[in-house]
Amino acid sequence: MVHFSRQLCRSLSLFFTTLVIHGIVLSASAAEVPEYQDIFPELSLNGSINRIQMTESGKHLVALVESATTGQNELFSIRLDNRVATKLHVPLNGGNQVSGFKISPNGNLVVYRTQFLTDSSDQLFSVSINGGESVVLNPLLLSNRSVRDFLISPNSQFVVFQGDIDVDERREVYSVPIQGGTVIKLNSNLINGQSLFGLEITPNSDRVIYRKTDPSFKTDLVSVPIGGGSEVRLHPTRTNGASAKSFGTYSSDGRSVLLGFGYGLFQSEDVFIATIDGSTPPLHVVKRSTTDFKISEAHFTLDDRFIIFLGKNESATSNNQQHLFRSDLAEDAALVRFTPILPNALGIRQPFLHPDGIHVVYRATPSTSNIFEVFQIPIAGGEPELLSGVSSANYTTNDFLVSRDGKHIMFNKILLPSFVQQLFVTSFNDKKTSAISDTFFTESESTIGYDIGSSISNSLFLSLNRDAVFVPKVENDELCVPIKVKNGRVAVVCL
Prior knowledge:
Blueprint: H1 6-21, E1 27-28, E2 31-32, H2 43-46, E3 47-54, E4 60-67, E5 73-79, E6 85-87, E7 96-103, E8 109-116, E9 122-128, E10 135-136, E11 147-152, E12 158-167, E13 170-177, E14 184-185, E15 195-201, E16 207-213, E17 219-225, E18 232-233, E19 243-250, E20 256-262, E21 270-275, E22 283-286, E23 293-300, E24 306-313, E25 323-328, E26 336-337, E27 349-353, E28 359-364, E29 373-378, E30 385-386, E31 395-402, E32 408-415, E33 420-427, E34 433-435, E35 447-452, E36 459-463, E37 469-470, E38 473-475, E39 478-484, E40 490-494
Antiparallel strand pairs: 1-2, 3-4, 4-5, 5-6, 7-8, 8-9, 9-10, 11-12, 12-13, 13-14, 15-16, 16-17, 17-18, 19-20, 20-21, 21-22, 23-24, 24-25, 25-26, 27-28, 28-29, 29-30, 31-32, 32-33, 33-34, 35-36, 36-37, 38-39, 39-40
């Protein structure tokens, strides 16, 4: 693992500063490496970045920026090839500001929400990622009415959102074409204090799934056509107060969803495969062996042969950690644990199916020190491999992202007890780990935000003081580390 000491980092920074000031081009491995530029040069003058997201193609960055003069959140799109920033939102008058955004899966449009601070009402818009006129997506709301969750369909054609458009504090589900048009209420009438939550759009973009809960927290899982139609219940008849939930994972053809059934809002004892339109009865694939065995996550493998579960036996006096299990659908096999016993009770966190369809990536604590590291393990069984560099008692791994091409994993490490954060990347090919953000000395300089696109070359990160966004550069699979130098300029060195 590459780790710059304080003295070395200062020496490198001074050395690179001298080179940049004198106009010398840096090089590494006999290949010229261009000088890094601040991705958003107006930022130091105009405000602080609150959130960043990159398009999958790596062509654009969208940033939510707090204005230094007005304190309002504004929305910008930045072309990464020429660093040109374009303001995306409508004029912010009367104390309103941008309160959230999402990029359409095809990378062409941005959907954003504005909030009027004076009366707390919301408005939803769509706009080209290149800028232009914004299109209003929801009706003008009365005072204190809001738009909560909103999603963009995988085909980038629809926006689905939840809001109290018709009745104050009664949040219902609506869909609207992303380019504007008729707003359609999707749910049936709510009765007896029912509420809705847990919005999902199916992979084929044809249906919306959500949970309908009554005051006693008994929950139904229903689906409805995205353009409007009749609700369909996806699970068996509820008995004795059981509740249903979607695990948010679908078969490879997008026609079936994994759902949990049990006696709690967040964990399940049974797992079913249900067709998203309710056309066939749900298939019971995991039957509880004990009412104390709780399943919190379930995933189809890419070939639909296995279902991967994150679960634990809560009644066990030992080994009651969360573990990964698999069930072979082709053989109707029982659950098989394929992660090793851990030395403490924290268990497995954040399981992620690798794009190769063979491995699961996850966080776990390999020792009694409660320090998390990132591992991968074969679904078919085997030994876990450490991905987050050399394990250290001083660092804990906070979270991770895997590039869509499956070649790299990016993760944030927190130095304890100072809570300074630094960003690293590991190649799945050779397991080489490298630092890609500065070695920081204070918590205010930590890396707090990052995103990754189709490959590691389409990635970016944000420092905690929110004064700069950087893009790591990869030349011929060499990782180039940005070193911040004078006046916010950045130089790089390839590893």
